[in-house]
Write a structure and sequence with these properties.
Low-confidence stretches: none
Mean pLDDT: 95
CATH architecture of the largest domain: 2-Layer Sandwich
Strand order of the largest sheet: 3-2-1-5-15
CATH topology of the largest domain: Nucleotidyltransferase, domain 5
Structural class: alpha+beta
Number of strands: 24
Distance between the termini: 50 Å
Shape: globular
Radius of gyration: 21 Å
CATH class of the largest domain: Alpha Beta
Oligomer: single chain
Strand content: 15-25%
CATH superfamily of the largest domain: ATPase, nucleotide binding domain
Length: about 475
Amino acid sequence: MYLGLDLGTSGLKAVLIDDDQNAIASAHSDLNVDRPQSGWSQQDPAEWVAACEAVLGALGGKADLSAVKGIGMSGQMHGATALAADESVLYPSILWNDTRSANEAAAMDSDPAFRSISGNIVFPGFTAPKVAWLKAHEPELAERIACVLLPKDYLRLWLTGDKVSEMSDAAGTSWLDTGARDWSDELLSKTGLTRDHMPRLVEGSERSGDLRADLASRFGLPAGIPVAGGGGDNAASAIGIGAVRPGEGFLSLGTSGVLFVSNEAYRPDPATAVHTFCHAVPDTWHQMGVILAATDALAWYGKLVGEDPADLTGRLGELKAPGGTCFLPYLGGERTPLNDAAIRGAFVGLEHATDRDVGTRAIMDGVAFAMRDCHEALAGTGTTIEHLIAVGGGSRSRIWLEAMATVLGSAIHVPADGDLGGAFGAARLGLMAATGAGLDVVTTPETADVIEPNQTLQSAYEDAYAGYKAALTAIQNLPGGSQ
């Protein structure tokens, strides 16, 4: 058996797979996000450890963990976890959707070296500007920083005792030379750091360390089994659904929204606000268009109207042409293609006839239009998507996928097994690290359904997308509407 751990924003999930890659058991533990100020988002790393203890304990009640041969890891990207020399946590981990470091990010991005070497815009959500924020606002604390770890790599430290990261997650820090797949001494120096502050780097399918004997004994796992490098959440999800070859990609409707495509070569184009990162397997890269609120936007609306998001979407029936109400899903800024931490969302075109269901449809369409912006940005780099698979909690809504297919003008494949996300991909990476297996084990899932664009509604959606773009221009021109 092989164990995959996926440290998300709202919870930690664990999956066990057998030698034939069949999922045989899973467990989940919820996590909370602390938002002490507007635009802030942080977590206590001790809660990650507690969540991992919970899922390992739960799995031990479902399966014989002594048969586990390898462990893989996936995790939310970009979080800055600052450690002192004694490995104690100096400050809550500043998460991917935290925008407090917008000024620091803009200052770094004004230096051409960052885009040139990292291949990406320095977004406020990335790791380096968060450490710069700590230096500016918590200077005494920042002086004590001995190491900066990404979230899953802090969990790895607990599992193995080793400070290690891997290429896909490290590419989202603004410190990696993404083409060379190595830390950049120049970029580290520009932020007052050195390699000594960074974890060792491995490929995602490589062995990063061994499970600690005390944890093995405590949870009934074999001592010394390998822990793979793993992957950032999206790269690990791509491993889970087999998107490792050129043109293979996925549409993720999770807390955030991602349009992901695998590339055989390094093709950065920072001006598009497309993310160009290393993949979780050697000699492979990927590109992503990323929006900050996908199911998060629907969850926000659910709280506003006092209903569960699944109930909101479940009663909508068939897909309809968009109405006059438009939603712009910028609840906490936006990445692709805007690179704007200050912009905020809006409903446009509200009227007496606007009810709860109209609002739900507007939310779903607005997220679809934001994903269309990502699609346009990817196309602007010369990237084409040959095969698109739906993942994430939002992909359980067929009507939302039909809206997405219609807006993107592309068929969307729904896998027969819906549990093929980051935890499953992490388990696959654990298998690769333990056995030395190559890409032959990274297969694509059987398709249960193919959602085609709704040809009847395509023209109406094109008109609505034009209205969405006009509404975006309008809110950007409002005082305080944009950076």
